[in-house]
Amino acid sequence: MILSRGQKVPITKGRSVSELVVTLEWQNDDQTIEVDAAAFLLNEENKCSGDESFLFYGQPISADQSVKQIKQGDNRNETYLSLKKISPAIQKVAFTLTIHEGEERGQNFGQVSSLSLRIADKVTGENLVTFTFGEELTKETAIVVGELYLHKGDWKFSAVGSGFFGGLAALCENFGIEVESNEDKKEHLEFIHSPPVAATQEAVVPLTVTLKKKEAISIRKSEKVVATLEWKSKKDLDLYCFYVLKDGTEGKVYYRTPGHAHKEPYITLDGDAKGAGKETIIVHKPSELTYVLFSAYSAVSNGIGSFKSMKAKAVVDNQMGQRVTSPLFENNKFAYWVAIAKIDFTDLHDMSVSHVEKYSKSGTERSPLLYNDGSFEMNVGPIEFK
User: Rounded CA gap, 188 and 380, in Å?
Assistant: First the structure.
């Protein structure tokens, strides 16, 4: 099965497969670029329980011998997993790639091509998943390629393909492996094969927070922001990103106008879910924007029902280990629109993520509008039909 970014598929459900091979491959013309693969064995809190849960070329085998990494030359890495042997404490395995000393050397994944992941049944050789990715990457030095995770007793795979800044150190902090910038810690973790913090960047404190009603929080302004609309319902929701550029240009990115990564508005929508699940917006150049507003639209065909009952939420990730979730608190069964979260990019170093939860009038399909000063208004935009 060929996957696109954001897709999730079953691996073991309906199959008698217990031994997997996960292959990561890439190409780079510059032979000085060193790409390293790693795997993080995560608990139910999405964290490593200790250094032993981090597998890389210097520590390639898990403590229970269930996961093993083998580097196959300079452009390929294989991870072997025995699903029956994996500890019950391990709920997810994250597969990653990093560039050794990428920030120091001015190297990034924009210089690496043909990135791919394949999952095969080790016993039969059957190819179960193929995922190619990386076209949207520019200056990132680390990637969470995908995640193999347990769901109701079966293993599934999520094609993530998200880039990070800060190299392996940023990934380690994101997954709960403590990395300090002092020399003692650097010597203790010298096997990591990556600088504790990028030489040109100030350390960023990892953060995972869920906003309260009308609450706002400031996180580090990064070079790329990923925002997702997530929900648990069979109904079809659509993620809209209303934006204001630095020059005052106003607009929106949604399923009919998916945007552009390398020109205005520097925002892209990663597909239309057309059902329950998740839709993703990528802000490729936060420095070119002043405000964005994330809203959800429920198609008329969905009928009535509150966005809260669908467990809809917006998640903003600065790709530096800081993630903010904006949930919904109100039961509004008759609105087609809800504005969920807003980001203020006007500060030089930080960005403010606000919970804004505001609904359209009953039965009204007119969309919200975001204005130059960062304020927004419901029920005044174009009428949407789907």
Answer: 58
Q: Supply 216's token pair.
A: 């706002």
What are the start and end residues of each CATH 2.60.60.30 domain in the chain?
Answer: 2-192, 207-377
Segment 167-171 shows an average pLDDT of 85
pLDDT of residue 303: 65
Give the total residue count for the chain: 386
Please name the residue that has the structure tokens 């608990």. 43
How, if at all, do strands 207-210 and 154-164 pair? unpaired
DSSP string, 187-251: HHTGGG-S-SS-TTS-----EEEEPPTT-EEEEE--S-EEEEEEE-SSS-EEEEEEEEETT--EE
**N-terminal to C-terminal alpha carbon distance within the chain:** 29
Tens of pLDDT, residue by residue over 262-302, are 899 999 997 544 445 789 999 999 999 999 999 999 876 66
Identify the CATH number of the domain defined by range 2-192. Answer: 2.60.60.30
Residue 153 has pLDDT above 70, yes or no: yes
Using a cut of 0.90, tell me whether the model's pTM lies above it.
no
**Is the Cβ–Cβ distance between 91 and 43 less than 8 Å?**
yes
| 227-253: pLDDT as tens digits | 999 988 777 788 999 999 999 999 999
* Rounded Cα–Cα distance for residues 161 and 25 (Å): 13
CATH entry 3.40.50.1370 includes domain 207-377: no
pLDDT at 313 over 90: yes
Q: How far apart are CA 74 and CA 34, in angstroms?
A: 8
